[in-house]
Amino acid sequence: MRTKEDKIRQHKADLALLGVAFIWGITFVAVKDALADIGPFYFLAFRFAAAFLFLGAMYYKRLVKISRRELGAGVFIGLFLFGGYAFQTMGLKYTGAANAGFITGLSVVLVPLFISVSSRRLPSGSLTAGVLSSATGLALLSLSQTLIFNYGDLLVFFCAVCFAGHIIAVGRFASRLDPVPLTAIQIGTVSAISFLFGIALETPPSTITGPVWKAFLITSIPATSLAFLIQNKAQKFTSAIHTAVIFTTEPVFAGIGAYFLAGEVLSPRQLAGCALILAGMLVADLKGADPRTKEAGIGKQELGIGEAEKRKPRGI
Question: Average per-residue pLDDT in the chain?
């Protein structure tokens, strides 16, 4: 049974995660503007390198004592993080900030779905309804009149899959490891892989323009190093599913930001799609989770690892 202190910690963690969702939501417009002047992989490489250096300067004493377990977990989680940001940033070249925000938000529908599959339980009726609602919304938001998916929206959907994996992976390791090195290694992993892809696939930018500098300032520290540090710390005190529910607000913030900062206006059909996606997120996460895991906090069963995983050594 949770104590009053535990509940206060969870409320503080939830407020911190809400702040993270707000920061992420308003960055879509800035990143989209920057991509006119820099390739997505070089942008990610510089963004995450700056975030890594910031964490290194702030916490170098803790980082020099990093354990092999923290290093392995950070790299593993960082692979999901790289996939999410790579697909999202590439997708923003071909779709609007509002579309990207709502489709990215599908990750919170996928979290309980993946947990259900990995724990070998049939999805509940509410989870199934949430997934169907979100899928219908995605179709209304993204399909053209010829029933062809927008290429950028498809890339952002793969981003949502990766971010769902990231939420679950953070939940698995955050309660047992130091969040500072865990966050730093994730961020360093994204930067390193992005540099490799940038060298192989893109032309380095000859100059750094104003919109690129603006995006770097907004995304590198507030939306990357601080945001993920907060997430990794906060998920010590709240569950992966609870985190996913809070992150349903990110696409709302993205839509508001796209309207006021970029003048994006969605059609009635697209607005209906956004509403269905948001409804699906809430139904899936509030009603679709197994009642035994919803209040369990962060543990093997809550993350859908299953009995076979419990019998394995506690390594990575």
Answer: 83
102, 50, 98: which is closest to 226 by C-alpha?
50
Distance CA 210, CA 241 (A): 39
Cα Rg of the chain, angstroms: 19
Provide CB contacts within 8 A for 231, sequence distance 6+: 17, 20, 170, 183, 243
- Domain limits, the chain: 11-303
pLDDT score, position 52: 95
Beta carbons of 101 and 274 less than 8 angstroms apart? no
- What pLDDT, on a 0 to 100 scale, did the predictor assign at position 33? 93
User: Is residue 142 a contact partner of residue 99, using CB atoms and an 8 Å limit?
Assistant: yes
- Residue 140 burial (CB count, 10 A): 19
* Cβ pair 126, 287 in contact under 8 A: yes
Prediction pTM value: 0.79
